Automatic annotation (TrEMBL):
Name of the protein: Luciferase-like domain-containing protein
Entry-linked SUPFAM superfamilies: Bacterial luciferase-like
UniProt entry tagged with the keyword Secreted: no
Keywords assigned: Flavoprotein, FMN, Monooxygenase, Oxidoreductase
Organism superkingdom: Bacteria
Entry keyword Secreted: no
Domain spans labelled Luciferase-like: 21-232
């Protein structure tokens, strides 16, 4: 069985849209023995949610309120962000935290709040997938500290050096998200540092994914994480046996409250 680390995965809506409150939760989580705290990245959400926080400002608050907690956006849809700005944000956050940032990435979705169509973003999944992969190429190059020369379908970076670099070398760990049964996300994840499978229904699905990832990474010797979102009352042990390295406690976004998160937090992380 894989040693499992535990994190809180917070929709930063309504009660949790206050970065001061989330920073306090992060400090409490660290004191209670949790290993990480990750936040959603959205510009809006369906009703009844009304308040939505900015993830990057919230992550900066988490970074300054903690000393050891791993944290990051889970996940940021890179296709609706400028990769050069994300390069600056990630390097600065990693330095602010002493090297504790993990970057979760994915395609994003228009399904839950129509936030892509309402802001004029790209709606085609395949096109957003290409934008995501191009952005990751730019980020990898930017984190090296060398001048970035990138000319592609969607982005141009002409000889810019992104200094200072992140503390973590060769760069910030990247976890790519995806649905079970879709082959592109595991392939993307295998080129980076972790996979975040969403909508898992049972551990056998994860075992199949882990087998696929092992085959894709057979020539790699670098560490690799599989982070599984599960409710607080779920048993993560079968998922750890299937290959999970992180358990992210999920909350219902429409009804999450500070008291609910604090109750889970005080119960403490999973043992081992």
């Amino acid at each position: 069985m894989t040693t499992l680390q535990s994190a809180l995965w917070l929709p930063i809506f309504d009660d949790l849209a206050d970065p001061v409150a989330v920073a306090r939760l992060a400090a409490e989580a660290e004191e209670a023995g949790w290993h990480g705290m990750f936040v959603w990245d959205h510009v809006r959400w369906r009703e009844p949610v009304r308040q939505v926080a900015d993830p990057w400002i919230t992550l900066a608050a988490i970074a300054t309120a903690t000393e050891n907690l791993r944290f990051g956006p889970m996940v940021t849809p890179l296709a609706r962000r400028r990769p050069t700005k994300v390069a600056r944000e990630t390097a600065t956050l990693d330095r602010l935290s002493g090297g504790r940032l993990t970057l979760g990435v994915g395609l994003g979705s228009n399904r839950f709040a129509e936030e892509l169509s309402a802001t004029g973003e790209e709606l085609d999944d395949r096109r957003r997938g290409r934008m995501l992969d191009e952005s990751l190429q730019i980020l990898t190059a930017a984190w090296s500290g060398e001048p970035v020369h990138h000319h592609s379908e969607h982005y141009t970076v002409d000889g810019i050096s992104f200094l200072p670099t992140p503390i973590q070398r060769p760069g910030v760990p990247v976890w790519a998200a995806g649905f079970p049964g879709n082959l592109r996300p595991p392939r993307r994840a295998a080129r980076h540092d972790g996979f975040f499978p969403v909508n898992l229904e049972h551990p056998d699905q994860l075992a199949d994914i882990a087998t696929t990832l092992t085959a894709l990474r057979q020539h790699s010797t670098t560490p690799f994480d599989i982070a599984v979102p599960l409710p607080a009352n779920a048993d993560p042990a079968p998922y750890a046996k299937a290959g999970a390295t992180w358990w992210l406690v999920e909350f219902v976004p429409d009804t999450v409250t500070l008291d609910q998160v604090r109750g889970v937090l005080r119960d403490g992380p999973v043992e081992g």
